[in-house]
Design a protein that fits this description.
Blueprint lengths: L2 H8 L1 H8 L3 H11 L8 E5 L6 E5 L8 H18 L5 E6 L6 H6 L4 H17 L10 E9 L5 E10 L1 E3 L5 E3 L5 H20 L4 H10 L6 E3 L6 H9 L12 E4 L3 E7 L6 E7 H9 L10 E5 L20 H6 L3 H9 L14 E7 L2 E3 L1 H16 L1
Antiparallel strand pairs: 1-2, 1-13, 3-5, 3-8, 4-5, 4-12, 6-7, 9-10, 10-11, 13-14
Helix pairs in contact: 4-9, 6-7
């Protein structure tokens, strides 16, 4: 059991009956606590040479889990890499005023407005290059609701191709991004969307924001990403990762939790100690609603754009199968720790899958097959 599982397991009843969490929060907490618990089932492997047995427990597959979150990040970054065009990309971060953050916390459906605003201003910026040609870039947007101190801070990480593809099949390289236009356009687009969703009561806040942020919302540009491998590694850091890495939690004494981070403004090392319940509150507020898409693709990377198939991909299809194997649990352990988990420790032969177990009960493959066939018949009836 890792330190995060210990923190949440010790305070499970307090969370449930005192904090009154959302259903999705309790679901993810329960998954994370029992991730890797053999009593919840797993797969049995056996060595055909010496008969040695090995039990591999199921994982929870929750993004809130530090172990499964990293695994999810690897898989999604690989899938994202398959979409990327072979060109230079730029990483931009679209932020909002602190006065607006509580609106997104109180009504999480408003987070859609962040995506819509970023999409509209980037597409408009490229469209204005030549309105008749209608240049379209490739855009990948990832929502983050947390900052390094774990506070509620929704913002969008956006990967944009430094070029656009026209309707008549012409590619135009775009090196200059007008950040003044992006800042002001993003501010206007977001505030208009929020007003349409919240209603007239938002007009006063909107006027105050315009007066306070006269230069628009801050849009930060990361260095250009040219190499394909660099792009893949870079985006994997910002996709699906857990809110806090286990290595950032320094100690837990049953009452308080101490963690550290490097402050974004000056990269200074900061150590904080919080009551355990306050620490839990910080973490669980970042669990997204069920089926909410934290990553979205626009422009050339959106679906159903058959005319863009002629563009060269960063990763050719011949490499897709090979790259997918690196995200499987067996290969992942081999690459990370240098040993094959399905090699018998006694005789070094490869172990074979024998049977699945679920909730303490032995389940035969025949029974699993019968259940699956029964479901298929019910659906077709």
């Amino acid at each position: 059991m890792n330190i995060l599982q210990e923190i949440f397991k010790d305070n499970y009843e307090i969370i449930q009956y005192t904090l009154h969490p959302r259903d999705v929060e309790m679901e993810n907490i329960s998954k994370m606590i029992y991730c890797g618990d053999p009593s919840f089932g797993g797969a049995m492997y056996a060595c055909p040479h010496c008969g040695n047995l090995k039990f591999v427990p199921f994982r929870c597959k929750s993004r809130f889990c530090p172990t499964c979150g990293v695994k999810y990040s690897q898989e999604r970054s690989t899938q994202m890499a398959f979409k990327l065009i072979r060109c230079t990309h730029r990483h931009c971060v679209f932020t909002i005023d602190e006065e607006l953050r509580h609106f997104f916390l109180e009504d999480r459906s408003l987070l859609d407005c962040l995506f819509q605003a970023v999409r509209s201003v980037v597409l408009r910026m490229f469209h204005n290059l030549n309105k008749s040609k209608n240049f379209v870039p490739g855009i990948v947007c990832v929502l983050h609701t947390f900052g390094r101190p774990l506070e509620w801070n929704p913002h969008i990480h956006c990967l944009i191709s430094e070029g656009g593809f026209s309707d008549d099949g012409f590619w135009r390289v775009v090196k200059h991004f007008n950040y003044t236009l992006l800042r002001k356009s993003f501010q206007t687009a977001l505030l208009n969307l929020l007003e349409s969703r919240i209603g007239p009561s938002f007009k006063k806040t909107k006027a105050l924001i315009y007066h306070k942020d006269k230069n628009g919302f801050y849009v930060y540009a990361k260095p250009n990403l040219c190499d394909t491998d660099a792009v893949i590694k870079y985006i994997s850091r910002y996709l699906g990762r857990p809110v806090i890495a286990l290595k950032r939690i320094d100690s837990y004494d049953g009452t308080n939790v101490t963690f550290h981070y490097n402050r974004h403004e000056d990269n200074a090392f900061v150590k904080r100690t919080l009551p355990v319940i306050d620490f839990i509150k910080l973490l669980i507020q970042h669990i997204p609603e069920k089926n909410f898409k934290m990553t979205r693709y626009y422009g050339l990377y959106s679906r159903h754009r058959n005319k863009d198939q002629s563009l060269w991909k960063a990763v050719p299809k011949s490499k897709h199968l090979l790259m997918k194997t690196f995200t499987k649990w067996r290969e992942d352990i081999l690459l990370s720790f240098g040993y094959d988990p399905l090699k018998c420790k006694q005789c070094n032969h490869e172990m074979q899958f024998v049977e699945l177990y679920y909730n303490h009960r032995r389940v035969s493959l025949e029974e699993l097959y019968e259940r699956a066939m029964a479901k298929v018949k019910c659906r077709s009836a």
